[in-house]
Amino acid sequence: GNSVTQMEGPVTLSEEAFLTINCTYTATGYPSLFWYVQYPGEGLQLLLKATKADDKGSNKGFEATYRKETTSFHLEKGSVQVSDSAVYFCALYNQGGKLIFGQGTELSVKP
Amino acid sequence: DTAVSQTPKYLVTQMGNDKSIKCEQNLGHDTMYWYKQDSKKFLKIMFSYNNKELIINETVPNRFSPKSPDKAHLNLHINSLELGDSAVYFCASSQELTGVYNTEAFFGQGTRLTVV
């Protein structure tokens, strides 16, 4: 079946630190991969996406590269800010018509 | 202009009651979803409708019944509420394109349901 596994949180970093949130997936076929972000008290919003192998999605300083050989889509940011504190979800979308989420990783950035 | 709106935002009710959550989207999308987010933030899809037709119906108690009067609305009715139903329920919508699997889903702000 299809599934997404993320590193467990919470992740606590100091401002300007480097961020990596690991995400691996299991899927049949060639899914599209996404990172969604959920700020406190809000719904999810798309952060970035990649639709095929070696694609790199990027937005707001965040990046993730679709690695088919390692079935991974790790999220990175070179210098986090307090305003990046949120829950981050890795997700895949495949021909079954389902958007399947990982368990979410809570990020807390301290000044 | 809210793209996906849910009402109510908060809902506190007693066990055994019946309640509904409403969702509307003004994006012109043809697919809508209900997700349940538990206290650990885990998101699980419950239902998906495409043009008012039920597409995905995960293993959800039949106390939960979605209803889509038109493609812009997807409501969730819950009968005989139980303590374990306490969660945040998110509505979402997307525009499904045949053969295209990179479509973005837009989420509402969520309805926090507390059953006491």
Summarize the structure.
The complex is a heterodimer of chains A (111) and B (116). Chain A has no helices and 12 strands. Chain A is mainly beta.
If you had to describe this structure to a student in words, what would you say it looks like?
- In chain A, 0% of the residues lie in helices and 51% in strands.
- Chain A starts with a strand and ends with a strand.
- Chain A is mainly β and 111 residues long.
- Chain A has strands at 3-6, 11-14, 19-21, 23-26, 32-38, 44-50, 56-59, 62-65, 75-77, 86-93, 99-101, 105-110.
- In chain A, a hairpin with a 5-residue loop joins strand 10 (86-93) and strand 11.
- With 116 residues, chain B is mainly beta.
- Chain B has no helices and 11 strands.
- In chain B, strands 2, 4, 5, 6, 9, 10 and 11 form a 7-stranded mixed sheet that branches. In chain B, strands 1-3-8-7 form a 4-stranded antiparallel sheet, with no helix packed on it.
- In chain B, a hairpin with a 5-residue loop joins strand 4 and strand 5.
- The radius of gyration of chain B is 14 Å and the shape is globular.
- Chain A binds chain B through residues 31-32, 34, 38, 41-46, 49, 51, 87, 89, 93-95, 97-101, 103-104, 106, and chain B through 4, 31, 33, 40-43, 45, 48, 50, 55-56, 90, 92, 94, 96, 101-110.
Total count of helical runs of at least 4 residues of chain B:
0
Helix fraction of chain A, binned, reads under 10%
Q: What sequence of helices (H) and strands (E) makes up the elements of chain A?
A: EEEEEEEEEEEE
Strand content of chain B: over 45%
Structural class designation of chain A: mainly beta
Catalogue the unreliable spans of chain A.
Answer: none
Give the assembly state of these chains.
heterodimer
Basic shape of chain B: globular
Order of helices and strands of chain B: EEEEEEEEEEE
Q: Tell me the radius of gyration of chain A.
A: 13 Å
Overall pLDDT of chain A, averaged?
93
Rg on CA atoms of chain B, Å: 14 Å
Q: Count the strands of chain A?
A: 12
Secondary structure tally: strands of chain B:
11
Q: Report strand % of chain A.
A: over 45%
